[in-house]
Amino acid sequence: MFKHHIFYVSFCAFSKDSKYLATASNDRTVKVWKLSDTSVIMANLSGYEEGGITPGYPSNERSEIPNEAWSIEEVCQWLSSLGLGVYEETFRKNAIDGKELNGLTAHDLETVLEVAPLGHRSKILRNRNLIPEIISCINKIGEPSTTPEEFLCPITHEIMKEPVIASDGYTYDKLAMLSWLEKEQRSPMTNMNLTSAELVPNRTLKMMIQKFLQNN
To answer: Buried b vs exposed e over 185-204: b needs ≥16 C-beta within 10 Å?
Structure first.
C-alpha cells in the first residue's frame, strides 16, 4: 500500500471506526486511505510538515474545529487540495464558508456554483462527507507517539538509559540487569541458565532511544 509514498512512512493513524487510515511520509505528503479488500486513496495532500496540518486544511490551531466553522478561504484551500481550484473564485463570490459547504446539494453545485462536470460535483460532495474523518486522522498524526515496546526494559518496564545485550540475546537496562545478576543466573525472559554474565552495550538501540526522547 505505502508504495504510493516516495519515501518511508513516518506516521500513521486510523479513524475511530477503522475504515480510514492516514499516512504521513518524509516526502512531505499525507494520504488518507479507505480501507477495504482493495484500499484506495481518498485524499492526497502535499506540503505536510511534522507538527502542522497540510495545505488545504485548517492550520494546526484550528485543526480540531469542525469543518462547519471553516472560513471562505479555508473552503477554497480545501477545493484546491482536491485539484478543483478552478471553482475557488465562484465559491468566494457566493460566500461559501464551512456551514454553507455542509448544506450544498448536487443541484446547488450545478445550477448556482456552475460546477458542470458530474464527476466534479460527486468529488466535492464525497470528499465533503469525509472531512471529519480526514481531520481526525491528520490530528492523530501530530499527537505524541507511544513509546515503542523495544525501548522498554523487560525487567523495569521503563525506557532504558543504558541498553545492554545479555547472553540470552535480549536487551535490558544495564543497572536493572546487574541487579538481577546479583540474585539470579537465569534469563529474565526465558528462565534458562545464562551462559555468561557479560553485558554488551547495544549502541544502536541507545541512539534510537535518544532520538525518540528528543522528538517527544
So the answer is: eebbeeeeebeeeebeebee
* Alpha helix stretches (DSSP H) within the chain: 72-81, 88-93, 98-103, 106-111, 118-141, 174-181, 203-215
Element at 69 (helix H, strand E): none
C-alpha cell at 59: 492550520
> By the 8 A CB rule, do 16 and 136 touch?
yes
Q: What is the pTM of this model?
A: 0.43
Task: Give the single-character DSSP code of 159.
Answer: B
- State pLDDT tens for residues 152-178: 999 998 899 999 999 999 999 999 999
Distance, CA of 124 to CA of 103 (rounded, Å): 12
